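fyi for ur records
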Amino acid sequence: MSDHESNKKAKSRYRRRMTVLIILEVFFLALTLFMTFCYAVVQRKWSLVETINFVDGEIEANVLESEAVAVQEKYTTIMFFGVDARDNDSLVDEANADTDIICCINNETKEIRLVSILRDTFLETSSGKHGKLTAHYAAYGVREALNTINRDFDLMIGNYVTVNWKAVADTIDLMGGMDIEMSAAEGKAINQFIWEVIDATGIQSQKVSETGGLYHLDGVQTVTYARIRSVGKEDITRAERQRTVIRLMLEKAKDMNMATLSRIADTVLPGISTSLRLNDILSLLSFVGDYEIGLTATVPFEGYYINQEGGSYYVYCDTLVDNVSMLHKILYDEKDYEPSTYVKELSKYITKYAKRHP
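which gave:
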C-alpha cells in the first residue's frame, strides 16, 4: 500500500471518529439541556410547596447518636400529618392534626411500614405541657409536634409532610376516584359528615348509597370516609381507614403517566408543607414503582391503652414503655428494645394521671 493510500485511509478513520465524537457531544448536550429543563420544571412546581428548613438541634431525640445513625442508614422515616385546615395558611400550626402517621421506608427492600398515632393520645411537650397530640400541633406548631413524638416514643424523625383536606381530595379526584369496600353503616356516616368536608374544601360532592358493598368514591367522599370515627373502634378504625386510602393512592400513583402526575402536582402542592428538600423528594420518587406497603399498626397498640370515659377524652398508653418497645419492633425490627429513662419516667406519670382522671 502506498503512502498516499495509507494517509487517505488514516484521514477517513479520523473523520469517522470525529463524526462520532460530534454526534456524542450533541447527544449529551441535548440530554443535559433536557435534564436541566426537567429540573427547572420540577423546581418551579416545588416552589408551590410551603417548606421549612430545620436547623441543627431544632429537632430533638432521646436516642444515642450512634443508634440514630445506624437506623437512618437503613431506614428513611417521615412523619405524615393530615390537618383540618380550611385554607393553606394553617398548615404548620393552628389546625388540628387529625391524621398522624409514621411512615418508615426500608432503604434496601423498599417496604413501607405505616404506624398511626391516635390523635387523642396523651403526651408531654418539651415545656412539660400534657394533652392530645392533635392539640399539640394546633397550639405549638409542627416543630413541637415532631419533637413531642420523638421524645415520647424514642424516635429520631427529622422530616415531616403535612397536607390539608383539599389537597387530598383534589389528588384523589385527579386520580379518578377510589374503589373502596364499605359497610352500610360507613355509607350512612359519610352522608352524615360529608358537608363538613365540602365546606372545608370548597369542592362539590354528593351523598352515597347506604346499601354497603364496593363504592367508587370521589375525593370529598374519600376524605369523609377517612374521617369516620362513629363506626367500628372509634379512632382505631379511623386510623385503619386512613392507611387504606394511602395504600390505594400509592397503587394508583404507580400507574399514573407523567402528564397526570404533573397536573396533580400543580393542583395539590400549594396544600402541602414539608421539611423535605427537593433532592430528597426526587430521590424518593425514583423508586416509586418499587415501594410496597408492608406492616401497618396503630399506637397505642391493641390491649395497651386506656380510653378516658369523660372529660377531654384522652387515650392513655398502658404502658408507654410497652408501647415504645413494640413500636420499635414494628418500625425497625428492634427486638427487646429498651426505652430511654425519659420514656420510663413519663410512662409512670401517665399511669398515675390516668388513675386520677379515668
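The first strand starts at residue 50 and ends at 51. thats all i got for now
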